[in-house]
Amino acid sequence: MRPSAKYKYLDHQGVLAFAHRGGDRVAPENTMAAFQNAVGQGYRYLETDVHASKDGVVYAFHDDDLNRMVGEDMAISTLTAAEIDGLRVQGGHHIPTMAELFETFPEARFNIDAKAWPVVEPLIALINKTQTHERICIGSFSDKRIKTVRRGVGDVCHSVGPMGAARFRLGAWGRLPLSYAAGAVQFPVSEFGVPMVTPASVAYAHQRGLQVHVWTINDESTMHRLLDMGVDGVMTDDCALLKKVLLARNLW
After folding, report:
1. pLDDT tens for each residue of 195-212
2. Is 62 a catalytic residue?
3. In a domain, 2, yes or no
4. pTM of the full predicted structure?
5. Domain count of the chain?
């Protein structure tokens, strides 16, 4: 049974369907076209990553550098906002700012991965300026970055970081009555060959008041298997496929 949501962000009937980087099946990841496609299909939860420009503007962009998406051998953090605004990813799409996403999709909720330290203070300032505290969940591969963002914006929804994930694995393995401040654990199905999402770990998370969100799932059989386990959220690049699966199970 799903635990009561610790944060308004997580308060949603049914499974949380996340468009991972907006989805990449109809448009490049983290572009307005990708996010618009997801929202047009009915997605309310959008996952994205953020970096900051040299002058402190927060952009929805995954990689540290521009090689893969733009074909330029430079770090995004070395460019000004004006320079980034002039860039185009595959297909001629611009790189959107987080402020643009907040404004364009006022009903959407965003799972935000703070990818590097230079984005932390600009992200804090943006959240406070736009008053989007209840529309965000902060994640990161750095526990310290998560804590720093929370210090700056208050007790917003957040997932466990690496140390929290290790603590969760220890607690789940030993059935220890540990407590967790986070609202969710967000895991891949397995890591380094070790299963992360099992019926036992899902049950343990729910007992500890945590939702379980799994990334990044793009095949139908795995979606069904995870839903059978009782996971609370699924992140996918294939928005149409996840919607089809959830509709078939009357979970959309």
Report:
1. 999 999 999 999 999 999
2. yes
3. no
4. 0.96
5. 1
Mean pLDDT computed over every residue of the chain: 96
Q: Domain with 230 in it: what CATH number?
A: 3.20.20.190
| Domain region containing 195 | 8-247
Residue 252, in any domain of the structure: no
**Which ranges in the chain belong to alpha helices (H)?**
32-40, 67-70, 81-85, 98-104, 120-130, 143-153, 162-174, 199-207, 220-229, 239-248
Active-site choice (20, 93, 158, 213) = 20
Q: Is the dihedral of CA 55, 59, 115, 211 positive or negative?
A: positive
The one catalytic residue in 12, 62, 94, 206 is 62
- Count of CB atoms situated within 10 Å of the CB of 152: 15
Is 213 tagged catalytic? Answer: no
Residue 252, amino acid: W
- Among residues 137, 141, 107, 111, the alpha carbon closest in space to that of 18 is found at 111
Residue 108 in any domain: the answer is: yes
Domain annotation covers residue 1:
no
Find the Cα–Cα–Cα–Cα dihedral 7, 140, 48, 1, rounded to 10°.
-40
